[in-house]
């Protein structure tokens, strides 16, 4: 069992849109994962830095935009970070000091546009990559821009073996924060040899657990899903809530559900519900090969009775750096001799 690493998933909220307080929280929880569980990889939720504006309307209805909504957007944009920035430098410092690889969801500000982004920070190399959410969901499209295929990282990272110190474990880690129901995007990640599939989210619905299990089984990869747990007290005092007449600082806004799942669909940790916390598991990367023994959706379990063409598509227009288009041709019926 020399091919193992220790990974942690953090379930927590933004600290009331306060960047300094949220970075302090990130450091505290990273150190907890390292010191308590020996984590080498730590995954934080979607929009952990910058915040997920649950219940906000930004003063919008179809055909009208209210001034107070513009003011709310200003406040939200000011809580976002640029890449690079002092905030990224702080995360790099935390990663280096704790010797942990950090994946964290942030709200990125690029000029006048915000993006729901995840950043990858290596303890040795610092910031190494980011992924911008390709298609924000529903109302999110009002406040976040769309990403493109230039930020779909699959990273090759070496870790020291958790079970055999002194030996090295190589793995491919991918990040995806949405489009989980898009088979094309998932297939791209699977085709790159993804072993650890990080899925920061704010989706606390029970159906999310089924989606995570399906991806683990389909991709024969470990799935690390980090969801926020947020209460009213974790937002600014005047933030919108579901029932304004019954405000309670302990009312749950996002219920969590963080989970770690193996390539064969076994839940290794979680799902954690209705509380902040850190869940951890030891990942035996040989389980990826054990799973691919009978299912490799971009290899031996792919269709082989057709013609496969790899088309390089425009990144900006098609969102993906490349796509695999399968054109299946029906086999001609056997020729039979006429009687």
TrEMBL record:
Residues the record marks as active site: 46
A GO term, aspect molecular function: nitrilase activity
Domain CN hydrolase: 5-285
Entries under PROSITE patterns matching the protein: CN_HYDROLASE, NITRIL_CHT_1
InterPro entries named in the record: C-N_Hydrolase, C-N_Hydrolase_sf, Nitrilase/CN_hydratase_CS, Nitrilases_CHs
UniProt similarity note: Belongs to the carbon-nitrogen hydrolase superfamily. Nitrilase family.
Protein name from the UniProt record: Bifunctional nitrilase/nitrile hydratase NIT4B
Species this protein is from: Trametes pubescens (White-rot fungus)
Highest classification ranks of the organism: Eukaryota, Fungi, Dikarya, Basidiomycota, Agaricomycotina
């Amino acid at each position: 069992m020399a091919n193992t690493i220790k990974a942690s998933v953090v379930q927590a909220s933004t600290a009331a849109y306060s960047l300094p307080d949220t970075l302090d929280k990130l450091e505290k929880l990273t150190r907890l994962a390292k010191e308590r569980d020996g984590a080498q990889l730590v995954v934080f939720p979607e929009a952990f830095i910058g915040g997920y504006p649950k219940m906000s309307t930004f003063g919008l209805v179809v055909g009208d935009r209210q001034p107070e909504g513009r003011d709310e957007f200003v406040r939200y944009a000011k809580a976002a970070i640029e890449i690079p920035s002092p905030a990224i430098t702080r995360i790099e410092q935390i990663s280096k000091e704790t010797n942990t690889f950090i994946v964290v969801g942030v709200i990125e500000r690029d000029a006048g546009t915000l993006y729901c982004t995840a950043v990858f920070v290596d303890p040795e190399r610092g910031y190494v990559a980011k992924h911008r959410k390709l298609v924000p969901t529903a109302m999110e499209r009002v406040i976040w821009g769309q990403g493109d295929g230039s930020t779909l990282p699959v990273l090759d990272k070496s870790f020291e073996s958790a079970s055999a110190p002194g030996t090295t474990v190589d793995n491919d880690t991918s990040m995806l924060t949405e489009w989980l129901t898009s088979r094309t995007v998932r297939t791209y990640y699977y085709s790159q040899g993804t072993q650890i599939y990080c899925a920061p989210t704010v989706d606390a619905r029970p159906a999310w657990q089924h989606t995570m299990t399906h991806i683990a089984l389909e991709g024969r990869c470990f799935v690390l899903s980090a969801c926020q747990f947020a209460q009213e007290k974790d937002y600014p005092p005047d933030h919108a809530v579901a029932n304004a007449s019954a405000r309670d600082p302990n009312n749950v806004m996002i219920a969590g559900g963080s989970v770690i799942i193996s390539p064969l669909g076994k839940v290794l940790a979680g799902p954690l519900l209705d509380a902040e916390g850190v869940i951890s598991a030891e990942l035996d990367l040989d389980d990826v090969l054990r799973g691919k023994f009978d299912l490799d959706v971009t290899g031996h379990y792919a269709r082989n009775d057709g013609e496969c063409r790899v088309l390089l598509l425009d990144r900006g227009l098609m969102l993906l750096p490349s796509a695999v288009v399968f054109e299946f041709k029906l086999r001609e019926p056997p020729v039979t001799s006429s009687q």
